[in-house]
Amino acid sequence: MGGFLCPHIFYYLEVLVIPIELYINHQIKDKEVRVINTDGSQLGIMPTEKAIALAEEKELDLCLISPKAVPPVCKIMDYGKYRFEMSKREKEARKKQKIIEIKEIQLSPNIELHDMKVKAKKAFEFLESGDKIKVTIRFRGRQMAHTELGFEVMNKFYEIVQEKAAIELQPKLEGKNMMMVLVSK
User: Which top CATH class is 23-95?
Assistant: First the structure.
């Protein structure tokens, strides 16, 4: 193939949040482990089989917490309860996340001041909800000969919204489009 990609093969990059799985009970293959009790006190270094028997005696699980330590560290705990607590924490963390969206406002090189103020009012709504704004101007036909008008329109629009917005990306021309990104102050 020599550096060419087959059009039938698609590459997907997925970011998965996988909770850290702990080795429990007989999955632990080390001969000796340092054991921590349910209350956090250390029980010392002992053979794995003895630690598992101690955990089973308390009707709990022996969980490998730090496999790279010498000797590995295990804790006696209720593994089912631990998994439940971890899933609850992950759900809470996802609830608290704020997803920032990029809203687009389109202007034209020959937009009137009143129309620009109407668009600015909409921009204020987007900024208050915590979104970013992508302001674009699309040039058509002969308008490409006068791109400086686009820069003037972008500057006027920014003057209107500058009390609540800051420029994240300066106005720049890309092909037939000019764009600028604004964020809330």
Answer: alpha beta
pLDDT digits 0-9 by tens, 64-87 = 888 888 888 999 998 888 889 888
Instruction: Using the structure block, give the residue that is written with the tokens 């730090």.
Output: 66
C-beta of residue 154 within 8 angstroms of C-beta of residue 135? yes
pTM higher than 0.70, yes or no?
no
Residue intervals in the chain for CATH 3.10.20.80:
23-95
Beta bridge partners of 182: 133, 167
